[in-house]
Design a protein that fits this description.
By secondary structure, this protein is an alpha/beta fold. It has one domain (4-343): TIM Barrel (Alpha-Beta Barrel). It has twelve helices and ten strands. It has an eight-stranded parallel β-sheet, covered by helices on one side. Strands 1-2 form a two-stranded antiparallel ribbon. α2 (59-68) packs across α3, α5 (163-176) runs parallel beside α6 and α8 runs antiparallel to α11 (312-321). The longest helix has 20 residues, at 249-268. It starts with a strand and ends in a 9-residue tail after the last helix. 44% of the residues are buried. The mean pLDDT is 95.
Length: 350
């Protein structure tokens, strides 16, 4: 594979990043099977693995750690994330409120948990999984800067941050003499193009690496979602019905677009999976899209996409089917600002 610079960190990463969300209880529960998939990806030239503490409540990190034991760790750029709720044992909704979020208290505690589960002494890229309305970004950047200076992490980034919060974080870092976010991990695919309007230009302006999650739009661009076919069922669809329920008009429009994109792939003589990944890879702001296979077959179907180069004509046809800068559904954005999600923030108190 041709390797790419990870932002301005000097680290070189493969053009596909192996996402580990589906290893563990959320996807493939058998550890040996998951490890074989990871090893196949490494053997194919992928040197970049992304996971998160919250994936199967730490089990994904444990599996990745097992896969990298025995000498493979030194050759891998290893990324993980924090923010999600990691305790549901207190007998109250949401668990311990201090075992989640972006506070210094949680960051310095959870990095140790991730290091232990991953079986490593350092994390190459430690990422804030989502914004936290209750924590000042300076608090988070300060804690991450300390971890970087201690050698526990090499660099840090963020995931699914709105453009304005990326700008704020860079301003704070510069004014306070702190380390800065060097990467952003946003949702991006042929069906989810909202970040083209703001996040991607901001990332380019600041020299950030961009690691798109869900380049296959959560399964919509695998070829399984076509008109006139029985649509697949999945745990993900059950967990996030707002992204899949066809009784929702936005999702019906997604089905129409997915079908049209499938026809375009057929006309171009490539699989829809390769079309989808090649589209994301073609954007000049993108470093490495994150693929998230659950099976060996899933992985094999995606590896060849790095060799696909889309013509201007094909890219123009994609733009006609899904206009640039458009998301069909707000749920596809991965993050809803509190000012939209919480009615109390939009209404004056009497």
């Amino acid at each position: 594979m041709d390797y790419r610079g990870l932002g301005r960190t000097g680290m070189q990463v493969s053009p596909l990043c192996l996402g580990a969300m589906m290893f563990g209880a959320w996807g493939e529960p058998d550890h040996d099977t998951s490890i074989k998939i990871i090893h196949r990806a490494l053997d194919a030239g992928i040197n970049f693995i992304d996971t998160a503490d919250v994936y199967s409540q730490g089990e994904s990190e444990i599996i990745v750690g097992k896969a990298l034991a025995g000498g493979r760790r030194d050759n891998v750029i290893l990324a993980t994330k924090f923010h999600g709720q990691m305790d549901v044992s207190m007998g109250q909704p949401g668990g311990d409120p201090n075992k989640r979020g972006n506070s210094r208290r949680w960051v310095v505690q959870e990095v140790e948990n991730s290091l232990r589960r991953l079986g490593t002494d350092w994390i190459d890229l430690y990422q804030v999984h989502r914004p936290d309305r209750d924590t000042d970004v300076e608090e988070t950047l300060s804690a991450l800067t300390d971890l970087q200076r201690q050698g526990k992490i090499r660099a840090f980034g963020c995931s699914t941050f709105p453009a304005e919060q990326l700008v704020e974080a860079h301003w704070v870092a510069e004014r306070r003499g702190l380390g800065r976010f060097v990467t952003e991990q946003p949702p991006y695919s042929m069906l989810v193009r909202g970040i083209e309007a703001d996040v991607l230009p901001v990332a380019q302006r600041y020299g950030m690496g961009v690691l798109p999650w869900s380049p296959l739009a959560g399964g919509w661009l695998t070829g399984a979602y076509r008109k006139g076919r029985d649509l697949p069922t999945s745990r993900r669809a059950d967990r996030i019905p707002a992204r899949y329920d066809l009784s929702i008009p936005e999702n019906q429009r997604k089905l129409d677009a997915a079908d049209a994109l499938g026809q375009l792939a057929d006309k171009a003589g490539i699989s829809l999976i390769h079309l989808a990944l090649a589209f994301v890879l073609a954007h000049p702001a993108v470093t490495s899209p994150i693929i998230g296979p659950r099976t060996m077959e899933h992985l094999e179907s995606q590896l060849g996409a790095v060799d696909v180069v889309l013509s201007t004509e094909v890219l123009d046809e994609i733009d006609k089917i899904v206009p640039p800068g458009v998301n069909f559904s707000r749920a596809d954005g991965g993050y809803v600002p509190p000012s939209v999600d919480d009615p109390s923030l939009r209404r004056r108190r009497s």
